[in-house]
Amino acid sequence: MSEHGTNTTWSLLDSAHAALRTAVRGVPEGDWDRPTPCAEWNVTQVLQHAVGDQLGYASSLTGGPGPTENPFAPSGKLTDSPEALLEPALTASAEAWATVDEQVREVRVPLPPGTMTAALGVGACALDAAVHAWDIAVATGQPPPLGDELAGPLLAVARQIVEPVRAFAFAPALEAEEGGPEKGDAAELLRYLGRRPDWTP
């Protein structure tokens, strides 16, 4: 595997994985306990959740090992370095999706209803990585890694998958503030996922 991870034929997933990898590598050593846009979780817990989700997608596709702890109840305790936790999950996810052709009509995913088209399933996996990259980045003073070019396709994915899982996976959608400065697909995506685009710790 190169420094930049395993590339797939899915450019959206590659971009989302790159965003998450960059955000994790950019966290200052003392910032892992900082609060995040995920109100109940600190930076470590968001990382653990994101890792668990990537392993969940890989496991659904391959039947291989899934996460060792519940992604929705992260412990907040790291037994290894953040990169040592992240990289195997990104590799497993990328390698699993690299075996899936874009024409496949049904793949298993760890979200209701349990199967999706390949394009929607990989989009859901990318959405998870990209949004948690944003959570980690803004919580630790890094530039937000979610621009409109990446957010546009992810917004289309989100509108197809979020509502059935919103109650346990996402906060209620937020309305745009009249005259607010945050515009564009990235801001719209974040609001749709219950996040303030101008969130600060």
Automatic annotation (TrEMBL):
It comes from Streptomyces rectiviolaceus. Residues 14-137 form the Mycothiol-dependent maleylpyruvate isomerase metal-binding domain. It comes from the Bacteria. Gene3D superfamilies: dinb family like domain. This is Mycothiol-dependent maleylpyruvate isomerase metal-binding domain-containing protein. Pfam families: MDMPI_N (PF11716).
